[in-house]
Amino acid sequence: MKAMLFAAGLGTRLKPFTDNNPKALALVNGKTLLEHNICYLQSFGITDVVINVHHFADMIEELLAANSSFGSKVTISDERQEVLETGGGLKKAAPLLSGPDPFIVMNVDILTNLDLSKIIAAHKADNALATLAVMSRASSRHLLFDKEMALCGWTNNTTGEKKESRDTQHAAPFAFSGIQVVAASLLNDMPFEGKFSLIDEYLYLARQHTIRGYDHTGDIFIDVGKPESIEKAAALFP
To answer: Most buried among 68, 111, 137, 199, by the most CB within 10 A?
Structure first.
């Protein structure tokens, strides 16, 4: 199985660190987020990893070269010319992820103890087009799921904006954890071009396909996107 780490973003929430560094190189207990997540994937037997780069791309490539990619096979998806967001980034990397098997996609600034083997098993058993790791927690944005945990919408709790794929009258809100299992066939059904969000892709596909949520509420989860979250992460991830 392959995996893709999203590491191209500007990391504006981690300023001033990201004024001179990519967010993937932020340190938690002396280890970069990049190393933490490559090793996290390795713990589930996933050693074939695609990483997209844009912001201070050379620094990421130099770290990988200096450390033999931390023991994994790493392929770079180069977005130096233009950062493409999550959907555009996945579409650009599609030739590197092609094959019959599903693959993992995750944000490089996420730290969690989610058991990937369980979400992978759930994805395969369900025959979903994508299975999204979600939690019942406070967030400025929520994905909306029906009682079968099929994606049916999205809402911005700050602005009130709402997007619907299906009826959301009885939908339950869950926060997305930035980790997903994706069926290989999804790469053949990405109608958007250029820079776009993977969430918008899922909402589009959910009209006719099953995009499933996998509830891992209770697991350790930290979005290491702000300076204050580094200290919190250091207490939980040695």
So the answer is: 111
Q: Which two tokens stand for residue 24?
A: 């993937």
DSSP H or E segment with residue 57: helix 57-66
Q: Are 175 and 138 in contact (CB under 8 A)?
A: yes
Crossing angle, helix 198-205 and helix 85-97, to 10 degrees? 80
At the top level of CATH, the class of 2-236 is: alpha beta
Dihedral of alpha carbons 216, 219, 223, 224, sign:
negative
Map out the domains of the chain as residue ranges. 2-236
Find, among 3, 110, 105, the residue nearest to 47 by Cα: 3
Residue recorded with tokens 């945990």: 149
Length reported for the chain: 238
Asked if residue 145 lies in contact with residue 152, where contact means CB atoms within 8 angstroms, the answer is: yes
Per-residue pLDDT tens, the chain, 238 aa: give them. Answer: 999 999 999 999 999 999 999 999 999 999 999 999 999 999 999 999 999 999 999 999 999 999 999 999 999 999 999 999 999 999 999 999 989 999 999 999 999 999 999 999 999 999 899 999 999 999 999 999 999 999 999 999 999 999 999 999 999 999 999 999 999 999 999 999 999 999 999 999 999 999 999 999 999 999 998 888 998 999 999 8
5 vs 212: CA distance, rounded Å: 20
> What's the pTM value of the predicted model, to 2 decimals?
0.96
